[in-house]
Amino acid sequence: MAPDQARGSVLVDPDSVQQLLDLEQIKQLKARYCRFIDTKQWRRLRALFTDETRFEGLGSAPTGSDANTFVEGISTRLRDAVSIHHCHMPEIVFTGPATARGVWAMMDYLEFPEGTSPREVPGHRGFYGFGHYEEEYRKHGGEWKISFLRLTRLRIDPLADDRPASRPGLLSASEDWLSGVT
Fold first, then answer.
1. Which three-class secondary structure state does DSSP give residue 125?
2. Which domain holds residue 122?
């Protein structure tokens, strides 16, 4: 038995600890992605991507779009919409010391007000969607960013026009709730 084991100490591999920290940072990156879309914080959303990020499978930007085109498209498309994005059960693998890939199960809800577009299906004002995000990440200056994002869909269920509309007057999220908290 090694002397450290005899005293009850456990040797920790610093690389493993860093990988756990990186994993948590990537999870928080994805959480901010969903929150910034749903709270319409477009400038903050753009900051989550590398300049080289490319997008696939999104209704708000054509395949191959860059981050600026994606943010411009989603901010226009969802300006008046109620959107709710949930991402779950991440599978993340590191492909290098500053690169990683991930798959996230996702669900989104999009509801467009009457008289606005896009309304994908006539007689419906939005949809529930289910699928996966496939992403790549790159660490820039100690901060993880999304460098590739693909949305795949398993199912889309339209919201009929006769579905009750969202209740007005709900409390909005605080944009700076986490600012300055240590």
1. strand
2. 15-160
| 146, part of any domain | yes
- With 0.85 as the threshold, say if the pTM is over it: yes
* Counted domains in the chain: 1
pLDDT in tens, the chain (182 residues): 455 555 667 676 778 899 999 999 999 999 999 999 999 999 999 999 999 999 999 988 999 999 999 999 999 999 999 999 999 999 999 999 999 999 999 999 999 887 665 655 677 889 999 999 999 999 999 999 999 999 999 999 998 888 777 777 777 777 778 876 55
The 8 Å CB, 24+ separation contacts for 20-29 are 22/94, 22/100, 22/139, 22/144, 23/92, 25/143, 25/144, 26/90, 26/92, 26/100, 26/102, 26/137, 26/144, 27/90, 27/92, 29/137, 29/144, 29/145, 29/146
CATH code, domain carrying 72:
3.10.450.50
